[in-house]
Design a protein that fits this description.
Elements (H helix, E strand, L loop, with lengths): L11 H15 L15 H4 L1
Length: 46
Amino acid sequence: FWEASFKQWGRAMQDDITDGVNWLIDQGIADPDRIAIYGGSYGGYA
């Protein structure tokens, strides 16, 4: 798992974030109309 996302900026790393957000929405924890991804440098690029 550790190496699965190496050099996968905007791909596998983004899929992890998207899957997590979709789970939060499905659980009723997050509002799909109020989702934002924010970060600087690596945190925003991934």
